[in-house]
Design brief:
This protein has 8 helices and no strands. It is an all-alpha fold and 183 residues long. The longest helix is centred in the middle third of the chain and has 24 residues. It is globular and about 45 Å long. The N terminus is likely disordered.
Amino acid sequence: MQTAGIIDRNVNGAGSSHEFLPLVYDDLRKLAAHKLATIAPNQTLQPTALVHEAWLRLVNTEGKSWTNRVHFFAATAEVMRHVLIDHIRSKARLKRGGGQQRLDIEGLELAGTTPDEKVLLINEALEELKLEHPDKARVVVLKFFGGLSDREAAESLGVTERTVERHWAYAKAWLLTWIREQL
């Protein structure tokens, strides 16, 4: 990426946030579009709204500073995850109908989980993983929500790529087992 050097110079808050945003906006929007496309096809949250909400949360954080581009995008991935989860929870609140549909009792079938319910279940599993294995949970956030490569995740965490690969494999298996136990 051509702007990586500029980003690394400005990422520590050396420039104002309104100067920094144009440098990373396209990358953030691509990341947001990718995450929204993989989470749920019926998502009402748009990539632009996700980027803007995440940006507002990032720049309003006390004592913010990022050591480099990878660290910035890792922090952004975590914030985007929280924005997505908050949005899904907000949609599901009972005061908004909770996504309930009118059913004919005669044709009642057991319904599967909706895409939003799956995201909430994955988030719950990730929170449980974080309690037992915080290092492995961090790899999931960086790779799944942050879209970072193994190399970038390793750089962000200060470990080897092989360690990231092992943590990723373990975390996927752990999450799958935990989710199966919940269903």
